[in-house]
Design brief:
- This protein has helices spanning 2-19, 35-38, 42-61, 66-81, 84-98, 102-110, 116-135, 141-152, 155-162, 169-173, 184-201, 209-228, 233-253.
- By secondary structure, it is mainly α.
- The radius of gyration is 18 Å and the shape is globular.
């Protein structure tokens, strides 16, 4: 039992180190588990990122206008994650915006430089987050942030269950690791962890976001499969960013229900 619990703690710590800049105890990071094993815990890390955003928001709201508090909370998440998912979203915008073949798209996404499509895409996605959060009621903001960050990080794990990695093994060895061959149990565990904040929040209108995020993930996965034959790590980042925005927009649209 103790060894099992320690193993799960190692997985959570490894997931946190993979997705964020947070430091973890050394005794939990001596081993390097495969990404497949830590991916189901991504939503828990997302919930932590959302909690950091909510804490910054509530603290800033004591002395600053709400729109400034929102901006600071967004800055906190970007700093905490190192813009990990935003970077993937930018690469997807550049790759699919400027490439017309699988090889060209993957080559562009592999380039660390950001292009016009990526720059415009990041500005748009951050702008939508800011506008949506600025109009969400203060009373539900904490759970909105926590749930959005947790649930949106379960969506790439679900997508990876249904798709194959678009890059071959040789290419993957030179890039950031990406999970593949997820089993059903790992996918379901990620979805369970992703929905825990939703259940805890007691916000009934949050439920409407779940099918919309699922549909968005399905559509994006279908799009990726059509053009490059599967997904990449950047595609996973793009799915997280887009579904996070879908959650905010749904909460905003259903606030009066």
């Amino acid at each position: 039992m103790v060894s099992w619990l320690h193993r799960q703690m190692v997985f959570v710590a490894s997931a946190a180190m993979y997705l964020t800049r947070l430091r973890m105890p050394r005794k939990l990071t001596d081993v390097n588990p495969s990404l497949n094993l830590i991916a189901p815990y991504f939503p828990l890390v997302g919930g932590l990122v959302g909690a950091i955003a909510a804490l910054v928001y509530r603290g800033a709201l004591l002395v600053l206008p709400s729109d400034v508090a929102v901006m600071l909370s967004m800055a906190a998440t970007i700093y905490t994650t190192g813009a990990f998912h935003e970077d993937g979203f930018a690469d997807v915008c550049d790759g699919f915006g400027g490439g017309w073949t699988k090889e060209k798209i993957l080559t562009i996404m592999k380039d660390s430089r950001i292009g016009a499509f990526g720059a415009v895409g990041v500005v748009m996605i951050l702008g939508m987050k800011y506008q949506a959060l600025s109009h969400i009621d203060h009373s539900s903001m904490i759970w909105t942030m926590i749930t959005a960050h947790a649930l949106s990080r379960s969506m790439p794990v679900a997508m990876s269950y249904f798709l194959v990695n678009a890059r071959d093994d040789a290419e993957r060895a030179d890039l950031k690791p990406s999970f593949h061959n997820q089993n059903f149990g790992q996918m379901m565990l990620a979805l369970v962890f992703g929905t825990l904040p939703l259940i805890a929040s007691g916000q009934l209108n949050f439920i409407f976001a779940v099918p919309l995020m699922g549909i968005t993930t399905w559509y994006m996965g279908r799009f990726f499969k059509r053009w490059v034959g599967g997904y990449t790590g950047d595609c996973c980042g793009a799915v997280q960013q887009v579904t996070e925005v879908v959650f905010y927009l749904t909460v905003l649209a259903t606030a009066k229900l």
